[in-house]
Specification:
This protein has 632 residues and is of the alpha+beta class. The chain is built from 29 helices and 16 strands. Strands 1, 5, 8, 9, 11, 12 and 13 form a 7-stranded mixed beta sheet that branches.
Length: 632
């Protein structure tokens, strides 16, 4: 199965095509990248604005190149890199010399920062080390190779670096793996989310270069950049860039046009997968990007922007089918194995999937691998299947195994899988739901975790994707009752979607929503398949909604929905306010508020009726302080 990757690029005002920006000093978005912010020479770039990179002899002074600022350049480029520690840690790094790097045409210098961090991997708010990542991913990491240095941030020894890079790119396959380019900031939207720039195939993986050295016995080190050649071209035959410049020009001429509606964002569910410069991205994240791209390209066509967009749409649909085929029905198996107690569950899941062709065979194979791991697994995984793991799996109750399989259908992080599957952790986090309840309604995984810490929230998108796969996967890997979702407008799905809409609405300060508005928003959700509902259907589900949503009538007598937790919060606030209002020790403030208003705003023409009305209106709410009988 191909591993897809995300690649971060700095914003460029000329399409990353191998020229310096047209107006470097106006390009503030690229300053979101630390390396550019700290090392950029704006005066130099202004002097070189719009120059072709191949005509310059100062490429080493353009920090955006090592950040991917020329990933669409059709020409080969060459830069010289110096190890940043040679001047500060002479004993360990002083022998490393400036080294030439070649950037092939249409290539990106991929640097998987997260994988090379020693102690910056966050899990449930705690720091974890590179050793944990090595165990999870199957990296042959040797801590004894690392030099004794004051700085502890990055892996330094070349042997460990090589092992990390080899593991990171081992499943990145030419013509199969997709590369999704994104920017941390773009100038046309005020949004903190990552902006997807384009998508194409990996065409070649050129390994990172070992630093030149004048000491053959000294520590080796690599430049970190693995040059990824990609397939995106102006012909749009195998990938494309989104036409944000043309859309921006369209928006300038059409004030009602919302650029946000035509922008593809990396979903917050997958934030970490679009961070750290270069990272693995899950099948679910790629599916989400493709679906957004399909929607945006329809908008691009409506705007009349030139381009072979029908070809791009056809290409995206082909990639969507291929990604679903690789994703299969059980993308969460690795995380669930880790939650069960196999630290390298992700590696084990990959080994099992490579040996199985269908779900029935997969689960039988897992049973056999747990009993006789040496017959089915690598030595690396075999060492983790001890007697306790074997016995626990063999004697696991049927309900627990069923839950294990159901949760394996959802793309989960290890933290999420551990917290939900391990009952003691689930209850410790206040997630009040039983194994049986999860099996009967998988959408509870969203509803009951949505107010947890960010790393534990299982999004509705993840659950919905798992239980509405394409038809061929649904037929090949059928979901059995009670977990089977019977229809697109199954009450379990409708309630969860309604909750998600009400939660998003509350973020804007609106804690109630008219029924008609809620129905319209559910029908407009960009999900596949859509969820067709109407007011009568929603009304018939009210009894099922009561765990999460309450109904009411507004002042005009119209029905509305409100989250139960906001009703409870409102009742608590009302109770406290009434206690204070009804207190016998209320303060009485005797102030002439009109006189105070006039004192602050100064004299005015008494014949100015509008000003007089305004002056009289302002004190009205303040006068309530003078009335001890006033009640809310």
């Amino acid at each position: 199965m191909a591993q897809h990757i995300s690649l971060r690029v700095p914003w460029h005002d000329s399409g990353w095509k191998g020229v310096v920006c047209r107006s470097p000093k106006e390009n503030q978005a690229c300053l979101r990248l630390k390396n550019i912010y700290q090392n950029r020479d704006v005066a130099l770039e202004e002097d070189l604005s719009s120059c072709k990179l191949t005509e310059l002899d100062c490429l080493d002074h353009l920090p955006c190149l090592r950040e991917g600022g020329s990933f669409m350049c059709p020409d080969k480029l060459s830069i010289t890199v110096e190890h940043p520690y040679t001047k500060y840690y002479i004993e360990t790094h002083g022998h490393l010399k400036p080294t030439k790097e070649i950037m092939p045409p249409y290539s990106y210098p991929a640097r998987p920062f997260r994988w090379t961090m020693k102690n910056r991997l966050m899990r449930l708010g705690e720091y974890t080390g590179i050793e944990d990542l090595a165990l999870e991913k199957g990296i042959e990491y040797h801590p004894e190779y690392e030099p004794d240095m004051k700085t502890k941030t990055w892996v330094q020894d070349g042997r460990n670096q090589r092992a990390i890079f080899d593991t990171f790119f081992q499943d990145v396959r030419p013509d199969e793996s997709l590369c999704v380019f994104y920017a941390k900031q773009a100038p046309f939207v005020e949004d903190s989310r990552r902006v997807v720039i384009g998508i194409g195939h990996v065409k070649a993986v050129n390994p990172s270069v070992k630093y030149d050295s004048d000491n053959p016995r000294g520590m080796t080190s690599y430049t970190w950049e693995t040059m990824i050649q990609h397939s995106i071209r102006d012909t749009m035959e195998d990938g494309f860039l989104l036409p944000y410049d043309q859309l921006t020009a369209y928006a300038e001429k059409n004030s009602e046009f919302d650029m946000g509606s035509a922008t593809v964002f990396a979903a917050e569910d997958f934030f970490d997968e679009f961070s750290y410069a270069s990272e693995h991205i899950s099948y679910d994240a790629v599916i989400d990007v493709i679906l957004q791209c399909l929607n945006v390209l329809e908008i691009v066509k409506e705007c009349g922007i030139s381009g072979n967009w029908n070809q791009c749409i056809q290409w995206l649909n082909q990639q969507l089918s291929a990604v679903w085929e690789d994703r299969g029905a059980f993308p969460g198996l690795g995380a669930m194995l880790a939650a069960f107690g196999v630290p390298s569950g992700v590696v084990m899941a990959r080994e099992l999937k490579n040996q199985s062709e269908n779900s029935e065979e997969l689960w039988k194979l897992l049973d056999r691998a747990m009993a006789e791991p040496e017959q089915y697994l690598s030595d690396f995984c075999c060492r983790q299947i001890n007697k306790t793991i074997k016995s626990t799996w063999k004697n696991l109750p049927k309900t627990r195994k069923t839950l294990f399989q159901i949760m394996s259908r959802i793309y989960l992080s290890i933290d999420q899988a551990e917290t939900i599957f391990r009952q003691e952790l689930r209850h410790d986090k206040g997630i009040m739901v039983t194994d049986r309840q999860i099996m009967e309604n998988p959408y509870l995984l969203y509803e009951r975790t949505r107010n947890q810490a960010e790393e534990l929230r299982i999004s509705i998108k993840k659950v919905d994707t798992a239980f509405f796969p394409p038809k061929h996967i649904k037929n090949q890997y059928p979901i059995m009752p009670p977990s089977k979702i019977e229809s697109e407008n199954d009450p379990r799905r409708v309630r969860a979607l309604a909750v998600s809409i009400l939660e998003n609405n509350a973020l804007s300060g609106n804690t109630v929503m008219p029924v008609n508005n809620l129905v319209m928003q559910i029908n407009k959700l960009p999900i596949e398949p859509s969820c067709p509902v109407n007011g009568d259907m929603i009304g018939g589900m009210n009894d099922f909604f009561t765990d999460e949503i309450v109904t009411g009538k507004d002042a005009a007598g119209k029905n509305y929905y409100k989250l139960v937790r906001y009703k409870e919060i409102g009742q608590a606030i009302k109770s406290q306010v009434n206690k204070r209002i009804n207190s016998p020790n209320r303060h009485v403030v005797d102030v002439d508020w009109r006189e105070r208003v006039d004192r602050v705003f100064g004299a005015f023409n008494p014949e100015d009726k509008d000003e007089e009305a305004a002056r009289e209106e302002k004190p009205q709410p303040l006068r309530f302080w003078r009335n001890p009988d006033y009640r809310c």
